[in-house]
Design a protein that fits this description.
The strands form two sheets. The protein has a seven-stranded parallel sheet, with helices on both faces. Strand 9 (about 230-235), helix 8 (about 240-250) and strand 10 form a beta-alpha-beta unit. The chain is elongated, with a radius of gyration of 22 Å. Helix 3 crosses helix 5 (about 130-145) and helix 7 (about 215-225) packs parallel to helix 8 (about 240-250). With about 375 residues, the chain is an alpha/beta fold. About 40% of the residues lie in helices and about 15% in strands. The two termini are about 20 Å apart. It folds into two domains: about 1-175 and about 360-379, Glycogen Phosphorylase B (Rossmann fold); about 180-355, Glycogen Phosphorylase B (Rossmann fold).
Length: about 375
């Protein structure tokens, strides 16, 4: 198949999943065309069966905000014409789904059929999408999609709840991991750069937005470090970073907390971790938690959104209500305080991640593609 993929090129989960999906499709012989305003962070310049097409937005004085949606639609049309795309798969509803619809109509005027699939990832529905100024456009674009998927059952139900005009059937196809990327036995030698032999390493990875509750991560760690020698590695960046740095100073914990910034391949850090913290307000899926489990790292998380669909309480990790930092600290201490118990949780985390391996999820997308293409050829 000749597949176009539209995604954000940033560190967020939707861009990561879209990129890894495209790479997996290319490895199976499909031709994949990424369309975005920058090269996706998980994509190298040289990948077999993969082509990157940059969306260029002209900055005219007339426009206070450059019209990215129109530029994207125009680029989709251009790629579809000259690369003869079979279908388009857009990740994240805003503004990709509406741009895809516009491109589809422009191409139809030329006699070219381009079905498009929309994958909903989370904040495009639960945060940005709830803005009344987007509701009608998002509902329309979802309903006009040739197929729609959501990364969790929780997100599917949220979509129907927040967008009452959405009537389109939504299929749940979960996020996935490429397990071989997390099998890094040599990475253990780097542990000495972050912790002493007696210290446990706790990790959190996010975009440091309020919904991630990174301040809770620090509170949990502060309770843990007073009973078990440990270090906290914070991976990522975002609007809450300054507040978190101040919190670390106020707690006198700066010497035991390290900010690592944005890391393209966080698997190298997860390979040396003992525990992963994700106390988010909500997670439509929780890709960071799944990546941690793929590295054999148990997860202490909240129990909101899609997290209960991947983190099994008492098996791959533990879950608590949002804001229960004392309870999460108790769970962290329970896992870390006994070495045999820790090893068991680590092994279970890896086993749980295997349920979401790319070779189990990719066929679901390929089946959906074939279904959409069959409808295309019948029309």
């Amino acid at each position: 198949m000749n597949i176009g993929i539209v995604c954000y090129p940033t560190f967020g989960g939707s861009g990561v999943v879209a990129t890894e999906l495209g790479k997996a499709l290319a490895a199976k012989g499909h031709c994949v065309h990424f369309i975005s305003y920058a090269l996706p962070v998980r994509l190298s310049a040289f990948e077999e069966n993969i082509t990157y097409h940059e969306v260029t937005v002209s900055d005219y004085p007339l426009f206070e905000y450059p019209p990215y949606e129109l530029a994207l639609a125009n680029q989709i049309v251009d790629v579809a014409r000259y690369e003869k795309l079979d279908l388009l798969h857009v990740h994240y509803a805003i503004p990709h789904a509406s741009a895809a619809y516009l491109a589809k109509q422009m191409l139809a005027a030329e006699g070219i059929k381009l079905p498009f699939i929309t994958t909903l990832h989370g904040t495009d529905i639960t945060i940005v999408g709830k803005d009344p100024s987007f509701e009608a456009a998002i509902s329309f674009a979802i309903n006009e999609s040739d197929a729609v998927t959501a990364v969790s059952e929780s997100l599917k139900q949220d979509t129907y709840y927040f967008f009452r005009k959405v009537k389109k059937e939504i299929a749940v196809i979960p996020n996935f991991v490429c397990l071989e990327h997390y099998n890094l036995p040599e990475a253990g030698k780097h542990r000495k750069f972050y912790a002493t032999g007696a210290q446990k390493i706790i990790v959190h990875i996010s975009n440091f937005r309020k919904v991630k509750r990174v301040d809770d991560v620090v509170r949990i760690f502060d309770l843990v470090r007073k009973k078990i020698p440990s270090r906290l590695l914070l991976v990522g960046d975002g609007p809450e970073k300054t507040n978190i740095e101040k919190q670390c100073r106020d707690l006198g914990a700066c010497s035991e907390i390290q900010f690592l910034g944005k890391i393209t391949e966080p698997n190298t850090i997860l390979a040396i971790a003992d525990l992963f913290l994700l106390p988010s307000e909500t997670e439509s899926f929780g890709l960071a938690a799944l990546e941690a489990m793929a590295a054999g790292v148990p997860v202490v998380s909240s129990n909101k959104g899609g997290l209960p669909e991947i983190n099994v309480h008492g098996y791959s990790g533990m879950m608590r209500n949002v804001g229960d930092t004392a309870g999460m600290a108790d769970d962290a201490l329970y896992i870390l305080s006994d070495e045999k118990r820790l090893v068991k949780f680590k092994n279970n985390a890896r086993k749980q991640a295997q349920k979401f391996a790319i070779d189990k999820v990719l066929p679901q997308y390929e089946k959906l593609y074939r279904k959409v293409l069959a409808k295309k050829h019948r029309k």
